[in-house]
Amino acid sequence: MDKIDLGFAVNVEAPERCIILHPTNGEPIYDKDGQPMFVALFSHDSPRARDYNRETLNRRLARRNKSNLSAEELEAETVGLLVALVADWHLVNVTTREPITMPCNPANARTLFNEPALQWLREQVSEFVQERRNFLPKP
Questions:
Q1: Residue 11: CB partners within 8 Å, gap ≥ 6?
Q2: How far is residue 97's CA from residue 82's CA, in Å, rounded to a whole number?
Q3: Span 95-122, pLDDT tens digits
């Protein structure tokens, strides 16, 4: 048997858009043309996530002192997973509503998610990927 088809499954093959909400009023952020700010992400159940998690676990298992993991290393792993799951984005300057033309690539995603002043954004993205219902078929 190749796969079990229950007729309702998490979409692990395509990203979904996480619409970014303003950190103070909770409203979606739009650019001047009315396009919402978003980060398109793959599911926590996707092959990308599974591959990243396996790499991380293998790296941990290869360490001499497996129990000695720093807070900085754990944070880097969390950011690394988000970087692995990002597929696309449309970023907007919240004040000017101008689109930000920063290419969506792993280096820029890591910079974005590591920026202390933008932890509100990282938190939204992290919560989105952990919520399975965001990747289930819409009724």
A1: 43, 135, 136, 137
A2: 25
A3: 999 999 999 999 999 999 999 999 999 9
Please check whether residue 89 is in contact with residue 40, taking contact to mean a CB–CB distance below 8 angstroms: yes
Cα–Cα distance measured from residue 36 to residue 14, given in angstroms and rounded to the nearest whole number: 19
Cα separation, 88 vs 69, in Å, equals 31
Residue 1 has pLDDT above 60, yes or no: no
Q: Which two tokens stand for residue 34?
A: 């009315």
80 vs 118: CA distance, rounded Å: 16
DSSP-derived pairing of the beta strands 16-19 and 38-41:
antiparallel
Cβ distance 16 to 24 under 8 Å? no
- In the numeric block, which tokens belong to residue 114? 């590591």
